[in-house]
């Protein structure tokens, strides 16, 4: 039994035997205080025999913590959808999805407007039963919403392209309900727009609140055998497209991030834990909070289990920017989703330098490799170096 587990079980249960602050510092006390501890536990194991424990200064948290200079939007600027029924939160008339079209100029977004297998299945079902799917009925649109004009007017239109477009990111029914759609998973860098607390749709019924409902997967933090430190395993099989958890941490200003980089003895190591919230950064934005430089999330000292997820050049997870209230785009979430089916007990990984061409090119440059960190991901597609 390691020293942390021993202290937790033999000292912290008794006020006489635990010193002030000991419980606050104990990682087992921290994860056992999570709201979901009983149903979706996080476990920490080290079977390597090296005696290592998690960094003592590290604190587990279930949500990001906004530090000095970082504020969410004031109530008078909050914005939610007015959908009358939950089904509507999938289609172009839902206010939360207003920005989906054209929010990202990559060609994949065009593809995301195309009907996927699920749309076609629904159309086939409707054709066979002579019924109109509910979304084929004209709905009242909100003023100013990007509402698709081409809605079947009479009878049932079997041409999938000439109907109201499904704009949200998830499958809504069948075996794939709640999973990210293929158009998002196939290399899309588009953000995910979800309904949230400020919407009229219900928290439990709306199909567009997957990240908002939080982690649904028990995870294990384990000590790796191959010098990568700690890593994370899923304790349940995951399907391609399934939400795992968010990358939480301290949300700090760009100045504070720079100060922390400067303070860290090895700036590149610090960068491993810092993620810029730059998905909506636009120097021409009318919103000063989006003109940049962006806020950053630091998971080094305060975070959830995802902070221990290692890098792979052939990963099984990918990070998506997720926004609920559109007034809070500057503090958007970093949501991790499975990009392939993953077995119970498999290690979870994501690509730390996903899409950052400069770092990917450096890894191929022999002169720069001398200074770079060797990648130990072991995949066939390994680039050899992390950064
Ligand atoms: C965000 S942390 C991940 C958790 C880390 N393994 C730990 O024990 O705290 C990133 C650090 O993990 C290690 N790491 C992650 N993936 C790696 C990989 N593929 N090859 C080598 N080291 C890796 C590196 O030391 C890196 O700086």
TrEMBL record:
Region (Disordered): 1-22, 129-164
Biased composition (Polar residues): 129-138
BP-aspect Gene Ontology terms: methylation
Matching PROSITE patterns: POST_SET, PRE_SET, SET
Coiled-coil zones: none
Cellular localisation: Chromosome
GO cellular component: chromosome; nucleus
SUPFAM superfamilies in UniProt: SET domain
Residue intervals of the Pre-SET domain: 79-214
GO molecular function: histone methyltransferase activity; zinc ion binding
Domain (Post-SET): residue spans on this chain: 371-387
The protein's name: SET domain-containing protein
PANTHER family: HISTONE-LYSINE N-METHYLTRANSFERASE SET-23, HISTONE-LYSINE N-METHYLTRANSFERASE SUV39H
CDD domains linked to this entry: SET_SUV39H_DIM5-like
InterPro entries named among the record's database cross-references: H3K9_Histone-Lys_N-MTase (IPR050973), Post-SET_dom (IPR003616), Pre-SET_dom (IPR007728), SET_dom (IPR001214), SET_dom_sf (IPR046341)
Main location group: nucleus
Keyword set, alphabetical order: Chromosome, Metal-binding, Methyltransferase, S-adenosyl-L-methionine, Transferase, Zinc
Pfam family, one: SET
SMART domains: SET (SM00317)
Domain of life: Eukaryota
Species annotation: Coniella lustricola
Domain SET: from-to ranges: 217-353
